[in-house]
């Protein structure tokens, strides 16, 4: 075999490069799907659309496009025509498989997104004839409102997270009581003898004990349900002699069913001196249809 000249070697190399360029692009580079949803993809992701050299592809939008809405990154290998709510691109026959040209379309209705971009990717086999572009247009005010709502929701979640973390660091039960008494003894007082129960109460108070510690008070009640319906305490309010209401936190094991008794504990982070008792205490269920009210609530000092 005769040795090849340098010119022949160069010719073979160029032919080999052309053959490699003719290979179809990877499937991930473009799609021949007839629908593109702009809202279903990240804004920074530019979708690839498979086009055939010498064959037109039409992009159909849901609203009329303004004049001069189309920009091509390379007008030498792709032509286009704009009309109404569509854009038709014409890849020239010289448009090689794997070659890419960016198509950018600007919308004129003032809604978001303001524009959309697509990669036109040459493909020897696949090529979509028509692509419907779905764009859920939203006004700038709507987007601002959604962003503000998202920020408010995130802020509320952060606050709730902080509250839960703080609660996890608090001791409960007997350990909590022992921790409180490290600086001051917990005082208690039997209230039942001096308690005045409202005659229309839904439940009867069988036991009543008040507690005080530095900066906090609590009342523990044992309630008997003589009615025919289950009762569940959901709200507690303490009213002092001046008519000032204080909302109390409430703890209970479960609803108190007919004919049974159950404990309810209410309290607040306030000192007994701040409350100005004797006070009245009112427990209510969710719909406030049935309540338990008592007067003569005091706290030990």
TrEMBL record:
Signal peptide (from-to): 1-21
Stretches assigned to coiled coil: 140-167
Pfam families: DUF2381
InterPro entries named among the record's database cross-references: Mxa_paralog_2268 (IPR011754)
UniProt keyword list: Coiled coil, Signal
Domain of life assignment: Bacteria
Protein name (database record): Lipoprotein
């Amino acid at each position: 075999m005769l040795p090849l000249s340098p010119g022949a070697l160069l010719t073979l190399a160029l032919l080999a490069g052309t053959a490699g360029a003719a290979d179809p692009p990877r499937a991930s580079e473009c799609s021949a799907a007839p629908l593109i949803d702009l809202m279903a993809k990240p804004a920074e992701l530019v979708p690839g659309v498979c086009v055939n050299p010498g064959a037109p592809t039409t992009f159909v939008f849901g609203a009329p496009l303004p004049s001069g809405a189309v920009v091509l990154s390379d007008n030498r290998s792709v032509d286009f025509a704009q009309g109404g709510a569509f854009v038709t691109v014409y890849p020239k026959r010289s448009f090689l498989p794997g070659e890419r040209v960016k198509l950018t379309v600007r919308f004129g209705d003032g809604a978001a997104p303001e524009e959309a971009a697509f990669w036109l990717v040459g493909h020897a086999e696949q090529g979509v004839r028509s692509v419907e572009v779905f764009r859920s247009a939203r006004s700038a005010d709507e987007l601002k409102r959604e962003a503000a709502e998202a920020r408010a929701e995130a802020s509320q979640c952060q606050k709730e997270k902080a509250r839960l973390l703080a609660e996890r660091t608090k001791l409960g039960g007997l350990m909590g009581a022992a921790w409180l008494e490290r600086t001051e003894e917990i005082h208690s007082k039997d209230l039942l003898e001096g308690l005045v129960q409202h005659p229309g109460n839904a439940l009867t108070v069988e036991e009543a004990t008040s507690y005080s510690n530095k900066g906090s008070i609590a009342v523990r009640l044992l309630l008997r349900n003589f009615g025919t319906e289950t009762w569940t305490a959901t709200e507690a309010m303490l009213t002092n002699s001046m008519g000032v209401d204080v909302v109390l936190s409430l703890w209970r094991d479960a609803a108190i069913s007919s004919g049974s008794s159950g404990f309810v504990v209410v309290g607040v982070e306030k000192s007994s001196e701040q409350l100005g008792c004797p006070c009245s205490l009112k427990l209510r269920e969710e719909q406030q249809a049935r309540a338990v009210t008592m007067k003569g609530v005091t706290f030990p000092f």
